Amino acid sequence: MTKPSGRRLVRWGKRLLLAVAGLCIGGFAAERGLDVFWPYPLDRLQALERSTVLTARDGTWLRVVPTSAGERVLPLGFAECPKVLLDAVLVGEDERFFAHGGVDWVAGLRAAAGNLTAGRVVSGASTLTMQVVRIVEPRPRTWWSKCIEVVRARQLERLVDKERIAALWLEQVPLGGTLRGFEAAARFWF
After folding, report:
1. Longest dimension (CA), the chain
2. What angle do CA 104, 110, 114 make, to 5 degrees?
3. Dihedral sign from CA coordinates of 97, 100, 106, 108
């Protein structure tokens, strides 16, 4: 058996580099094509319901009127969110939120390895962005739905900044019963 020559290695290296470049260009083109032919439904995102708050003249809250779905949803802007809450959410839900483009591939590989080792689903890898996509466009929990969430999360990240996505999640995440979001939960429980 002969050792591969230097030229052969260079040739294989070039082919591998071309293949990787082709995949990257193809992926980029596919994403942009989906943006044109299957755009993200920003109208649904903007139409998410919020509760009406009835206040007295002095600003004290008198009543929170539930949404048409019977839920209490109160706005919580990114700037108004306590830093300790945001830090806790990021540690528990999506540590690399500000570093990824909607999909945390590292967390996905970790979750896949853990699930394969256990022989069942023991860990997930949904990012905050993917969870917002699921809130805006609910679907049954299937592998196909997860693939759609990946595409939609990438689209959403190109349209909306990270702070707005975090604020939407903090405001719309289901927190038990008819409560959505941390502001509604905090006002109800505390």
Report:
1. 90
2. 145
3. positive
pLDDT at 121: 82
Q: How many CB atoms lie within 10 A of CB 136?
A: 19
Residues of the chain with pLDDT under 70: 1-4
- Rounded Cα distance, 186 and 190, in Å: 5
State how far the Cα of 69 lies from the Cα of 99, in Å rounded to an integer. Answer: 35
Q: Which of 81, 155, 96 is nearest to 128 (CA)?
A: 96
List pLDDT tens digits, range 80-133: 999 999 999 999 999 999 999 999 999 888 988 888 888 888 778 899 999 999
The token duo for 154 is 């990438």
- What whole-number distance in Å separates Cα of residue 186 and Cα of residue 152? 30
Q: H helices of 5-142, where?
A: 6-37, 42-46, 83-93, 105-118, 128-136
